Amino acid sequence: MILRATLLAFALATPAAAQSDAAAQARAAVGMLEDAALQLNAADGARDRVRALTGTIQAFETGLAAMRTGLRQAAIREAQLSARLEARDEEVGQLLAVLQSIGQTNPTVLLHPDGPTGTARAGLLLAELTPALNQRADQLRRDLEDVQTLRTLQTDAEERLRASLTAVQEARAALNQAMAERTNLPMRFTEDPVSTAILIASTETLDGFASGLSQIVTGENINIETPVNIEGQIGALPLPVQSLVLRGMNEADAAGIKRPGLLLATRPRAIVTSPTAATIRYQGPLLNFGNVMILEPRADTLFVLAGLETVYGEIGQVIAAGAPIGLMGGAETGGELSTDGDGTGTARSETLYIEVRQDNVPQDPASWFRTDRNG
User: Which architecture, in CATH terms, is 193-374?
Assistant: First the structure.
């Protein structure tokens, strides 16, 4: 409830033109974090603890992103008001002096030298001026109160962010344990460790490794079919992690290197989930890509995800859409308490690379997934 009151104070402190959006973001952030806290409490007793914890982590990530965005708007507004008040210091001083003199002046001093007529005219002029002066003073007073409210909000929100970060860390630790204990997933085929090791040793590119995977499947269970028909989902699949697109397919990086996939910027320790039901074709370290997860959502189609720190599951397992497949790397430090909004990307220090391959031919992932570049 304290968090709700704090964020509503933020909404009320914003200017009228921006108040609607700010209030909506504040309410959304409150709801997301409160729901996440409830989910974390309920996860221990959930029948599918993995799914419950996955939803909890995603809820925390979404709520924290909304909180940061709202706080960034508050910081910008506070800076604008402070700058405006500082620039008007002289005006404020003059205004206060005039109002004070009006309030303390003896009425006989205000007699006009031209006599009663001049005094009457001066009185009318002063009567017209005083409300305007009072209105200006009231506006300055409101600006000053807004600055004080916004500063209080930002101080309080840092404590809320720390508490939420602690909670999401607990959820990730619980998820690691739950994944280690999970043994009930169906297996579509049995891994051949020797052949996989030989393929890794002889592979020099991600392309070559993905192409060779189809040659090492043994012991396939013909009773387990491709998990789902994804034809109708192409173009609308969710990205596997909360992220921003850094580079699209075949966009050159700083070194001029082009890759046939998307490069996504994520926050440290972000959870990565399967976009659809799929078979795990490979998981583990590969070349210089860090940990790699290769999913097969249907025959002759592969999703290649590279750059994870932690990977879940076993080769050959069939997993459901939204199932956790790993966590990004990096450490949550003081930078995670930054109020930078998601639009800035400054706190997204980790990168996940995604390829989509059909019949061993790279496809544009932007035509498969919903991204911020889809408009």
Answer: Distorted Sandwich (2.70)
